[in-house]
Write a structure and sequence with these properties.
- By secondary structure, this protein is mainly α.
- Helices cover 54% and strands 2% of the residues.
- It has a two-stranded antiparallel ribbon with strand order 1-2.
- A hairpin with a 2-residue loop joins β1 and β2.
- α3 runs parallel beside α8 and α7 crosses α9.
- The longest helix has 32 residues.
């Protein structure tokens, strides 16, 4: 009653008493326990929990696109090579990379007439093997000893001055690749050489080589060379004439203008001496 009278005592003026109300213990004990106020936790984000900053993905996508494009071009190129080799296995060859480059660089045509194996003098075949690839009939496209000698020569010279290429390798280069020397080109040349050796006979390889080899400015093939230099067909070339034409192959444009060059004459004589020991491939 004391408390109630105190609360409802309207006669006392209202004052703001800062002193807390004191309740008897027996009433305090009956009050329900008050829940403690929970302090709001501020979310603190640790630096380690932040997601990593991703690098720019544009460059990665571009790099991936370039890589896939190069791979696609690589396979497409070799599919084309296989298709052309299948066609040229029986059909005449009237185009090569060297011929195309000549047309594009000079805006002039080329002299080239395809002739089959029986229309080429045996002297030309022996001269080519004696000069360019002594083991042509027996190897599988690569002359290991020749490659080792070329590597030693290049190391000594400090640049790529010798290739050690076989007739099959030279044919691969002439048909599909650029003339500039590099180890990348040699690698591609090796791949195409393996294709040629697997798909063509040795006789076909030699015939194709003699029909697309460069013998002067815009002069391709042994028939065009025979007509240009000796006014006769490739079938009727003599030993010396055959050796002289084959001796031109490392630098045909120079020797076209310097037919009496002493180095050319010396090489011609060496080829003639070696022709007797040149092994021709068997007809398959």
């Amino acid at each position: 009653m004391v408390i109630i009278s105190h609360i409802f005592d309207f006669h006392k003026p209202f004052t703001h008493d800062k002193t807390p109300n004191i309740m008897p213990n027996h009433l305090l004990n009956n009050l329900p326990p008050s829940k403690p106020k929970r302090k709001k936790r501020q979310k603190s984000v640790a630096k380690d929990s932040l997601p990593p900053v991703k690098p720019t993905t544009g460059f990665k996508k571009w790099l991936k696109w370039v890589f896939l494009t190069l791979i696609g071009l690589f396979f497409a190129f070799h599919v084309m090579v296989v298709a052309l080799l299948a066609i040229w296995q029986t059909q005449p060859i009237h185009n090569s990379m060297f011929m195309i480059l000549h047309r594009l660089s000079t805006f002039n045509g080329v002299e080239q007439t395809w002739v089959d194996d029986e229309q080429i003098s045996v002297n030309v075949k022996r001269a080519a093997i004696a000069s360019e690839d002594a083991n042509f009939a027996s190897h599988a496209g690569f002359d290991i000893q020749g490659i080792e000698n070329a590597i030693k020569k290049n190391q000594k010279a400090g640049n790529i001055s010798a290739g050690g290429s076989t007739i099959s390798q030279q044919l691969a280069k002439n048909l599909f690749l650029f003339p500039q020397r590099s180890y990348i080109r040699k690698g591609e040349e090796a791949i195409i050489t393996l294709m040629i050796e697997q798909m063509w006979t040795k006789e076909r390889i030699l015939t194709a080589y003699l029909n697309v080899a460069e013998f002067g400015n815009g002069i391709y093939g042994i028939e065009a060379a025979a007509q240009h230099y000796y006014k006769k067909s490739a079938k009727h070339l003599t030993k010396r004439e055959s050796a002289s034409l084959i001796a031109m192959l490392p630098n045909p444009k120079f020797y076209e203008k310097n037919r009496k060059n002493q180095r050319l004459q010396n090489k011609t004589n060496i080829i003639i001496r070696r022709m007797g020991g040149a092994d021709l491939p068997d007809s398959e």
